[in-house]
Each structure stands twice: as structure tokens, then as C-alpha cells.
Amino acid sequence: MNLRRFLGIYYAYAFLFDFVFAYAIYTALFELEGLSTTQIGTLLAFWSLSAIVLEVPSGALSDHFDRRLLLILAPLAKALTFVCWGLAGGNFWLYGLGFFFWSLGQAWQSGSREALLYERMAHAGRADDFDKVLGRDNAAEGLGIGAGTLLGGFVGWLSFDWAIWLSIPPLLLAAVLAVWLKDVRRVGSAEAAEEPPAGGYLSHFRDAVAEFRRHADLRFVTIYMAGGLVVFELLEEFDQLYYIATAVPVWAWGVLAAGIEGVYALASLHAHRLAGRPWLAWLLPLLGGTLLVIASIGGSPWYVLALSAAYVIVAPVTVLAEARFQRIMEGRSRATTTSSLVMAENVVGVLLTLLFGVLADRLGILPAYGWAGLCMVPFGLWVFYRQRRGVRATD
């Protein structure tokens, strides 16, 4: 299969994996089915914990066996989430089982997908274009989330049950498309296709540790993403509370979420055009933080534009940092190393989410956004200092 066709199938897979109507309504569904706020919080905490536990072992599976197999299984596992929820009828344990399948599906595809993409580009002699295709990958994913959320709101308005069950067909189609996403490490002799890489499953964990020990830039990019840019990602979980505080009408919530994802996708799509400007690695987070401070004024619904711009403005450096992470790696355990980055983001994300929640309880949701923005000042200064010392967060 030529590269252009491969990328078309790959982008369709990325879109379909997150084209989920249930995104728009699942938290409300739990409450309407009789779950308490404590039970909902417990489910979300379990979801985060299971994602952390499953992430790196799943990356090692991808490195040891065929990446394509995990990419086929991932959407099928995620589809089981909505089977469980569709049958739950208020059963707390079935909702928990659904979240486990979601975490499993996410873990199976996260490290595998990015590793497969980089290896396919390198195989075609196009590794230098990886930031461009990674931007398109992020755009496809963002458009899937945005379209699913927007349409899911309308479907959920008719029936929450429909929104749950209609989330399954796109995932089944994604599993079918994954059949054509061949792992280039296994293209060749029959023996290479049938036997896992030498060294054993546990060797991939050692390889990942060795990568981080060997490359200071890899450690720097990991901290850059998991310790800094992750702030913008976790804040999105609280945006509905921000909308309430600034009197954004409920009908506009889904439109806003879809609009943000659409513009974010556009920014990701063109991120490669900003390559070669390492100063953006500290400047854009600082600008994003400034916009968060402005958004925290929150005197009217119009301040949501500043919040939306804060998310979009860091999209290019997110893509460029992810691309640099892949370029730095040299070992054979690419998915395990990538999953280590994702796990770090998840761990820090959980801790910062709890911290932000406490801050919002004590100071209010709007001031909490302002303090999150101010955190970008020491972060930006640290990135500026480290890059002056010779390491880089982006190419």
C-alpha cells in the first residue's frame, strides 16, 4: 500500500475512534440514572487510575507483537464501554466495567498509533515530515471529538439511549479500517511476521528506561508536556462549570466544545509551518496563561472567547513537542516509551485536577482559572532557561 492511501486510512481511523456521541451526555446520564455525585466521582477516579495502570504494559505489548492487532482490538474494547452502559440501567458496577473497557481501548491504541505512524513515515523515507502528519492526526482526532460532541448533543436531546448505542458503529468501522494499517516492522519474511522481537516482553520496559536515561532532551520534552502543557488539557474538564459561572446558555455548550475542537484541529493541521522556531515553546504557553488570566475575569459570556483562545494557542507546540519526542527515540520499544509519556501525563493530570478542584472550592471557579494561568509564568521561564542551556522542546 502506498503512503498516501495508508495515511488516508490512518486519519479515518483517528477520526472514528473519537467520533462518539456519548461524549456529550455520559456524565448527565449517570446522574439521571440515579448515581450520586460521590459515585460519579468514584467512577471518574477509577477511569483515570485504570488508564494509568494499563498504559505502559499496553505499549510493551505493541512493541512485542504486531501493532496492527492492538489497533484492531482497541476500538472493539472501547465499543464494549457503550454496550455495558446501554445495558446498565443505573447499575454502578456496569458503568465501572464500561470505564475499564474504555481505559483498555485507549491504552491499546495510544502508544501503538503514534509509533506505527512514525515507523511508517521513516520506512518511506519521510521522517522529516512527521510533524506535518502528526498535526493531521491530531486534527482528525479533534474533529472526531468535536463532531461526536456536537451531534451527540442533538441525539441525546432525542434520547440518551440512542446517544449511547449509536456510539458503537463508528468504533466497529475503525476496527475494520485497522486491518489495513500494517506494521512495517513485520513486512518482509514470514518468519519476521510470525515471531515477536527478541529479548522478551519485559525487555521493552528496560529499553524505555534506557531511552530516558540516555537522552536529556527526551526527559525535557516529557516534563514539558506532562508538567506544563497538560494544564490546558485538564482545565477542559471544568469548562462546564466555567460556562455556568459566566452565564453561557446551555444550548451553546455543545456548539462551543465543537467550535474549540474545530479551531484546535486547524491549528494542529498547520503546526508544522511553525517548526524551526524553538522560542515558541515558551512564548505560546505564556500567551495561553495570559488568556486564562483574562478569562478568569469572567464578567460576561464573551470571556469564554479568551478561554477558547488559550486552548487553541498551545496546539502548535503540542504537535511539535510530540513530533520531537518521536524523533529523539532510537530504540526498538517506541510504543512503550511513548506510553510512558502518556502515563506521566495521566498521573500529573490526576494530581493537578484534584489540586484545581480544591482551589476552585476555596476561591471559586473563575479565580482558579486565573491561578492556572499564572502558573505558566514560572513554567515559561523554566523552558526559556533550559533551552538556553542547549535542550529543546520542539524542532
UniProtKB/TrEMBL annotation:
Q: Which InterPro entries match?
A: MFS, MFS_DHA3_Transporter, MFS_trans_sf, Tet-R_TetA/multi-R_MdtG-like
Asked if Kinase is a keyword of the record, the answer is no
Q: Which GO terms describe its molecular function?
A: transmembrane transporter activity
The record's subcellular location field reads: Membrane
The membrane-spanning stretches of this chain are 7-26, 38-57, 69-94, 162-181, 216-235, 241-267, 279-297, 303-321, 341-360, 366-385
One GO cellular component term: membrane
Q: Which UniProt keywords apply?
A: Membrane, Transmembrane, Transmembrane helix
What membrane topology was assigned to this protein in its record?
A: Multi-pass membrane protein
Q: Please report a single Pfam family linked to this protein.
A: MFS_1
Q: Which SUPFAM superfamilies match?
A: MFS general substrate transporter (SSF103473)
Q: Does the keyword Transmembrane apply?
A: yes
Q: What is this protein called?
A: MFS transporter
Task: State the taxonomy lineage.
Answer: Bacteria, Pseudomonadati, Pseudomonadota, Alphaproteobacteria, Hyphomicrobiales
